[in-house]
Design goal:
The structure holds 2 protein chains of 2 kinds. By secondary structure, chain A is of the alpha/beta class. Chain A contains 16 helices and 11 strands. Chain A has a 6-stranded mixed beta sheet, sandwiched between helices. Chain A has a 5-stranded parallel beta sheet with strand order 2-1-7-8-9, sandwiched between helices. Chain B has 2 domains: 142 residues, PurM-like, N-terminal domain (60s Ribosomal Protein L30, Chain: A), CATH 3.30.1330; 158 residues, Phosphoribosyl-aminoimidazole Synthetase, Chain A, domain 2 (Alpha-Beta Complex), CATH 3.90.650.10. Chain B starts with 13 loop residues before the first helix and ends in a 13-residue tail after the last strand. The chains are: A alpha/beta, B alpha+beta.
Chain lengths: 348, 334
């Protein structure tokens, strides 16, 4: 594809076998809607918004744990803003705040460390969510707190890794639009291994033209009938990734099973702090009980994340569930499939 | 005069007179400026427009202006949007006890200078001093009267399918500037507020297109909110071309980092205009001849379809809705 016009025209006019491609990065989801890409694609190309928004896949039990720490243990919860409105089984963090809990929104994990430093009388807990892209900065925050000798800083982990999700979701699509920033950290070997296992995909960047190009390459490769992998974001993603970031995470964290909202538990798809850093692990530090919430809802976020339905096929979409009153996590974050669909008119 | 404002400056006594004479009259004085209970001016010819606006921006001083300049531009621009030549303003200050007199003078100077540029006169004012902590530094309310030329009929309900939509300059600068001034994100960038009085731009536009349908100041909520307001008021749809929306590179940089849409950031010297298509080129040309509208551009048009929605054509030729205006992004932006 030498030009964007060619890529667009190819995608508009594609008339081969039906092709399902799943993006597994919240920023991709947001950009795909914001750029109106779905409307450009031939009806034979089906884009599925997979589980790539860290807020969307964070389970109800995690919110309950954070609420427990805030209300029962009196901790100051520091978090990215999106998580504040995600419903838990009893209440969201916004609800806990209304009951007097201290919830502070931060823009980076280091800000949470700073809050702990400046308020030695407070027990500060940072909600550590996200994928390979953001986990390095979470562990650097722990390292910073450790070096500063802080005794009042810890993190509640719900960090996740992608390879498990690729395997779990591999049957829901014909190919993945791999998340560029995740692979900027982890490198491309994972994708090559997936290809060997028969799972196809392309790594994509984040601008409109990068997304169109990657999609066009995927559709073309799909037509060749063999599993494929192409790195369409080489200006950022190197084969070796960022070994320094990977090593930093490995020093502090180890894999664990993880629950994904709406999908269930995916073995070894989470990251938790190693035992030697237990004093920074809020779960251990405050003996957080194993919360297994009963949570019934008509929300079909899980089916949306697995590409079984589009957001507007959920009975709550745009009615009981909207960005002002989100029922499901996918409606909370700007990166959530439901929120992006609602805001940018996915059915336009 | 003392260094800081005290409760005595608001008592109406000698200290108040001192403040008026040495600070306000010096900077804002003109033939109608009065020490009496009300100003008396000749009656203008034609219909008049009247408007009022309160200003509580934090911080009170920012890159490209201060609350004084803003308080003049706000009311001057509101009047201008109705096609009214701004004539007279009043201003009311609420100052926190302990506010430096030197800073209040800076504010008065900026107001005087902006009034002279906009060709408008402050004819009456009031100063109240609130105790420490009862108000944050300084709040200003201005009200103004302007006169509308015969034949000019502007309203948010006048947009018609086929109208071209013009912005008078690049969008989102004031909001970005205030966001940076608050220093909450740890981002450094040189973004200057677009804060400016725009009567000369409106006058130039009405001279080439007296049939102009809508002019609106894109303040709080930015251009995006104006577009949705006009859709509603006029019962039409709007198509905009995202590539055509002028955004300064520094604003694009900051908003890109924070995931903000420049169309939803406040402007204080940028208007949105809707005119019959055949006038669009002339209007843009006229705007470009004025001091504060050199970046004027056509960004889209009014449609009979998609009533109540703003549809955006993206850089790669996709179509999406411009998201509906959301919650207030930043409090105390103006």
């Amino acid at each position: 594809m030498s030009t964007i016009e060619e890529a667009r025209s190819y995608l508009e006019n594609y008339d081969g076998p039906d092709f399902r491609i799943m993006e597994v990065c919240g920023t991709h989801t947001h950009e795909i809607f914001r750029q109106g890409i779905r409307r450009i694609l031939s009806p034979k190309i089906n884009l599925i918004s997979g589980p790539g928004c860290p807020v969307c896949v964070t389970p109800v039990s995690f919110i309950d744990e954070a609420v427990f720490l805030a209300l029962e243990k009196g901790c100051t919860i520091t978090t990215f803003g999106d998580l504040v409105r995600v419903p838990g089984s009893k209440m969201s963090l916004a609800g806990a705040r209304a009951k007097g809990a201290k919830i502070k929104v931060v823009y980076a994990p280091f800000d949470a460390v700073k809050i702990a430093q400046e308020n030695p009388e407070e027990q500060v807990v940072f909600l550590s969510v996200g994928f390979e892209t953001t986990t390095p900065s979470d562990v650097i925050a722990v390292k910073k707190a450790m070096n500063a000798g802080l005794k009042n800083f810890s993190i509640l982990t719900a960090n996740k890794t992608m390879p498990g999700a690729y395997e779990a979701m591999g049957k829901s699509c014909d190919a993945f639009l791999y998340p560029g920033h995740v692979h900027a950290i982890t490198g491309t070997q994972i994708c090559k291994d997936m290809c060997d296992k028969g799972v196809s995909g392309v790594i994509a960047g984040f601008t409109g033209s990068e997304l169109l190009t990657a999609l066009a390459v995927a559709v073309k490769k799909f037509g060749e009938g063999k599993p494929f992998f192409v790195n369409c974001y080489p200006r950022v993603v190197k084969d070796e990734g960022s070994p320094a970031a990977v090593a930093m995470v490995e020093r502090f964290m180890e894999p664990c099973d993880a629950e994904w909202r709406g999908i269930g538990t995916i073995p070894m798809s989470g990251m938790q702090l190693r035992d030697e850093y237990a004093e920074f692990d809020a779960r251990k530090k405050y003996s957080v009980p194993d919360l297994k919430p009963e949570y019934k809802t008509a929300c079909r976020c899980g089916d949306v994340l697995q590409g079984k339905i589009t957001p507007n096929q959920c009975p709550l979409f745009g009615k009981a569930c909207n960005p002002d009153h989100p029922v499901g996590a996918c409606m909370v974050s700007d990166e959530g499939a439901c929120s992006a669909f609602y805001m940018y008119g996915g059915d336009l | 005069m003392s260094d800081v404002i005290t409760l005595a400056h608001g008592s109406g006594g000698r200290k108040t007179s001192e403040l008026i004479a040495e600070l306000f009259k010096k900077n804002l004085g003109n033939e109608y400026f009065t020490a009496d209970d009300a100003a008396v001016m000749p009656k203008p010819e034609g219909r008049i427009a009247m408007s009022t606006d309160g200003f509580i921006v934090s911080p009170w001083e920012f890159n490209g202006g201060n609350i004084g300049k803003l308080s003049i531009c706000g009311t001057v621009n509101d009047l201008s949007c109705m096609g009214a030549k701004p004539l007279y303003l009043t201003c009311s200050y609420i100052v926190e006890e302990g506010f430096p007199v030197e800073d209040l003078e800076k504010i008065a100077q900026a107001m005087g200078e902006t009034c002279r540029k906009a060709g408008v006169k402050i004819v009456a004012g009031d100063t109240k001093v609130a105790g420490k902590g009862q108000v944050d530094k300084v709040f200003i309310t201005t009200a103004g009267v302007g006169v509308i030329a015969d034949g000019v009929n502007l309203s948010g309900a006048n947009a018609k399918p086929g109208d071209k939509i013009i912005v008078t300059g690049d969008v989102g600068r004031h909001g970005t500037c205030i966001l940076l001034a608050r220093d909450e994100y740890g981002i450094e960038a040189d973004v200057k507020s677009d804060c400016a009085p725009l009567w000369d731009a409106v006058e130039a536009v009405l001279a080439v297109c007296p049939e102009m349908h809508v002019i609106r100041d894109a303040t709080r909520g930015g251009v995006g909110t104006v577009l949705y307001e006009i859709c509603d008021q006029s019962g039409v749809g709007i198509d905009i071309n995202s590539e055509a929306v002028p955004v300064a590179p520094e604003v694009r940089g900051v908003t890109g980092m924070l995931g903000l849409e420049p169309l939803y950031l406040a402007c204080e010297g940028t208007m949105v205009m809707f005119c019959p298509a055949e006038y669009a080129d002339k209007v843009v040309e006229a705007l470009k001849q004025t001091e504060h509208a050199k970046g004027a551009a056509v960004i889209g048009e009014v449609t009979a379809e998609n009533k109540g929605r703003v549809v955006m054509t993206t850089s790669i030729g996709g179509k999406t809705y411009l998201p509906q205006p959301g919650n207030e992004l930043l409090p105390r932006i103006c």
